[in-house]
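Exercise 7b. Backbone tokens:
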């Protein structure tokens, strides 16, 4: 059983880090006359919707925000810590290392084998 409050705090801390990272990224990429249409207080869904508009859809930060959003949804539904593929428990060390982890080790390895060509193209 997972401690929902601890997980919520970990996810919120990660979200804060990602938002700071995003704000720096946007600040560095915007021209002096442009204004970012998001802030640290913008709801997570609107942040995710904004990323494609500023050409950040194929970036690591977009992936991290999507995983964060999925983890919040899983927590809300009582499904946090279950593999999105086999629905078995994700190993605690994996979740400790990355609280947004979506797959158990076995399914992650299978996913990487099946999608290695696609994964290579993204790097």
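Sequence design result:
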């Amino acid at each position: 059983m997972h401690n929902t409050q601890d997980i919520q705090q970990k996810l919120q801390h990660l979200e804060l880090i990602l938002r700071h990272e995003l704000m720096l990224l946007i600040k560095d990429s915007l021209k002096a006359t442009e204004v970012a249409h998001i802030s640290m207080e913008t709801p997570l869904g609107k942040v995710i919707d904004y990323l494609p508009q500023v050409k950040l859809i194929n970036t690591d930060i977009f992936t991290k925000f999507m995983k964060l959003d999925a983890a919040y949804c899983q927590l809300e539904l009582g499904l946090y810590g279950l593999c999105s593929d086999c629905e078995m428990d994700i190993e605690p060390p994996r979740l400790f290392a990355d609280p947004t982890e979506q797959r158990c080790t076995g399914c992650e390895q299978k996913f990487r084998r099946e999608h290695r060509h696609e994964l290579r193209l993204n790097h």
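Instructor comment: The chain has a mean pLDDT of 88. The chain has two domains: 1-80, 82-123.
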